[in-house]
Amino acid sequence: KTLSHLRLTGGEPLMSKHTWKLFEWFEKNKKEDLYFAINSNLVCKEELIDKMLLASKNIGDFNVYTSCESVGTNAEYIRDGFDWKVWTSNFEKLVKNNVKMHSMCTIGAISLPGLVEYLNWCLDQKKIYGKDVPTFTLNIQRFPTFQSPLVLPREIRNQFAIDLIDWKNQADQSLLHAMEIEHVDRLIEYIKNENNQLGDDKYVNLLRQDFKKYYTQYDFRRNKNFEEVFPKLAEWYKQL
Q1: Model-level pTM greater than 0.70?
Q2: What integer pLDDT is reported at residue 15 of this predicted model?
Q3: CA-CA distance, 115 to 119, in Å (whole number)?
Q4: pLDDT digit string, tens, across residues 107-134
Q5: Peptide bond connecting 153 to the previous residue in cis, omega within 30 degrees of 0
Q6: What is d(CA 91, CA 69) in angstroms, rounded to the nearest whole number?
Q7: Is 58 helix (H, G, I), strand (E, B) or coil?
């Protein structure tokens, strides 16, 4: 198979005209054996999704990669401009039109509080549509360093590790790919391993101050509220 990737921006009119030109080329040169993947945030008008579905009908193996790691207000806080209802609606529409969906999860410090709930959402979709919809990856965020999962205190990280272990033990393993289980195991090991540290106490404290400054400004400039959205981190956050 030929492998192709394009990035599809979520909002009009930022959709690249070159993407549509390529789709038009496929209309004249149908490729039933082509693996073709687009990266989209899926926060766009339904009309754009309809247009993409129509344009992709001449591609044999059409895939959409999208990013999310929490549900509801958590997801909307993590990714400014994200709309959970729009995202899930567009996701469902693509799946029902036989598009293969892949979820890329970026795991930073504020991704951990809602991750289990999101993984449950993924399992719910798999129960409806099958093991392959969606596939998910857990990609550990390392930079900027003050947003790393390791900026959190050890006791908080350990609790998130326990939550993930419990989730894995209770999940229907038949719905998970080996790669997905490996990603969960890797994240558990990463956040609970006492040898995984960002640096000495002085450096970590500086990173935590950067964390507080960043999200204080983020809340102010984007009309958000860290403590309301992430109650599991609220006490720690207040003390920074």
Answers
A1: yes
A2: 60
A3: 6
A4: 999 999 999 999 999 999 999 999 999 9
A5: no
A6: 14
A7: helix
